[in-house]
Amino acid sequence: MCRLFGLHAGPRPVRATFWLLDAPDSLSVQSRREPDGAGIGTFGADGKPHVAKQPLAAWEDHAFAREARDLKSTTFLAHVRYASTGALTLANTHPFEQDGRLLAHNGVLPGLDELDRRLTELGVMDLVLGQSDSERLFALITAETRRSGGDIGAGITRAISWIARELPVFSLNFILSTATELWALRYPATHPLYVLERDPAAAPDPPAPLDARSRRIHSRSTELARSPHVLFATEPMDHNPDWRPMASGELVHVGPDLAVTSTVPFPADPVHLLTLADLEPSAAASQRP
């Protein structure tokens, strides 16, 4: 299945090299299992998004490694793709950008004909440039955010509530980022999504460098070790015991000051919940752990 990664470092830009390339289960390592595309989204000092992506596995994409080492940002959003809907093209590679925001998704959302009718009704079908269900999910969130006066949390709640009532759903896990905020949703319980809040100042001893050790990797990161940050990932990326699995239906928001709030605004399961057995063989293969 696809892998998600989101990082918020508060007001000070940092590099995310440790988590993207060097951690024991970094995005680069995970991409050997999900080979269909990789992308990194960040924001510049002017608040404008910057996306670097290719329909290649991160481990063989030299641009991914270069961007992962060089980019500094207050927020990061990264994705490695195992395709379920849409060809292996740049247009179908995550993250997607709409209205100055970025989104990456892990899951399958069938019922695209009905979703396209809804997007047309809301006047946002022009936002969809590829064939993926993920970009359509983002377009619905964008439409509902516009209808909510720019309130992203309200837009997410309206969009996901409509999908949960009207469409067949396998998994809607996603991370949405602006230059100063992150939102993450796990819904339903089909796939995991984890959150980690790191505050070195709260530790009893001076923070040691983040230290990744595996058979192939030994890397240390002093910068992030000294800075508070909040992480989201499809699976724990190091051995820190504080990684917390999000609950099904949980929507987590990280504000500019790293304040974390959590709500569960959705029913336990969508009305039309799907299992692997309900999916086409290619889609089912892309969703196995």
From TrEMBL:
InterPro entries documented for this protein: EgtC-like (IPR026869), GATase_2_dom (IPR017932), Ntn_hydrolases_N (IPR029055)
Which PROSITE patterns does this UniProt record tie to the protein?
A: GATASE_TYPE_2 (PS51278)
Q: Which GO terms describe its molecular function?
A: transferase activity
Q: Which Pfam families does its entry note?
A: GATase_4
Q: Glutamine amidotransferase type-2 domain spans which residues?
A: 2-257
What keywords tag this UniProt record? Glutamine amidotransferase, Transferase
Name by which UniProt lists this protein: Class II glutamine amidotransferase
Organism name: Paenarthrobacter nitroguajacolicus (Arthrobacter nitroguajacolicus)
Q: Provide the taxonomic classification.
A: Bacteria, Bacillati, Actinomycetota, Actinomycetes, Micrococcales
